[in-house]
Amino acid sequence: MGKRPRPGEAMSRPELHDLYGGNRQSGISISGRAGMIHLFSDPIAAEKYGLVDGFDDDGAYLYTGAGQRGDQTLTQGNKALLTHKDVGRDVYVWQRVDQTAWCCLGQFEVDQEQPYISDDAIDADGDLRTVIVFRLRPVGDPVVAPPVATTLPGMEDSIAEEIAVIRSRSLSQRVVQANRDSEAGLSRRYRAHLERLGHEVMRYQIRPPGEVRPFTTDLYDRTDNLLVECKPSPTRQAVRLAVGKLLDFRRFLSPTPRLAVLTASKPRQDLIDLCSSIMIEVIWPDGDGTFISSFD
After folding, report:
1. For position 52, what pLDDT does the model report?
2. Which residues of 144-169 are buried (b: 16+ CB within 10 A; e: fewer)?
3. Closest to 181 in 3D by CA, of 285, 255, 274
4. Are residues 161 and 17 part of one domain?
5. What is the CA radius of gyration of the chain?
6. pLDDT-based confidence at residue 54 (cuts at 50, 70, 90)
7. How many domains, the chain?
8. Which is higher by pLDDT, 264 or 82?
9. CA–CA separation, 219 and 187 (whole Å)
10. Is residue 131 domain-shared with residue 184, that is, in the same domain?
11. What value does the mean pLDDT take over residues 211-240?
12. Cβ-based neighbours of 174, under 8 Å, separated by 6 or more
């Protein structure tokens, strides 16, 4: 076995790649000749896009996968990291400590029980997307924290400005999308679909005790006793909000209705499973004027 990185040692990327090989630009750098994968973790850059690189509460190191635009997929570098043990590649995590140096945190392996999780984040264009967050466990030598703080002198203000610009751009693009396929528009389409099937559709106004103003439900399918909350965005935040509203409204309706979340496109399977675990249906359009149900 050739030379291996030592936990705690720091070097520039050119020095590192001269020693071990691998792609000099990628965050997931595969060195075939050395049988290694080097992961470059920059917590400050991650924060700009709503990501978190670093240790979680149970000691796993969270590392966001490769892919700057659109949903990330388990291909190329992400696939290589997921299957690194199958092909005998050792994984080393390097964390940025200043503008040129990276510190080796030690050797890691992908967690065998939960290798990764999916999360919502902002891509390089300011759009919402799904990212893959790997869960890595330290092996071998103990992990050594970087010797220098990861916040670089003079960067705080510029980082805050970049975050503000990204969030502002993301918001404006989401507003455009919302105008294109608004909550009201999606709700009308689903109502028209139900009425074509001969269902009686209405809305309820509910005023819980202590509230000054009533709340109005999105849709109630009286024929099927189904209360529907409409959220065009299929993100985790939107689905969670819809679930909370449905559980709140259900308390005030009799007979107790079944519950459904209506989204403009199919949510991730994890979110469908979340709803199914509490007997909430998920509904989305299939593109030809009809709708698909997670309970079908």
Report:
1. 67
2. eebeeebeeeeeeeeeeeeeeebeee
3. 285
4. yes
5. 24
6. confident
7. 2
8. 82
9. 7
10. no
11. 87
12. 128, 233
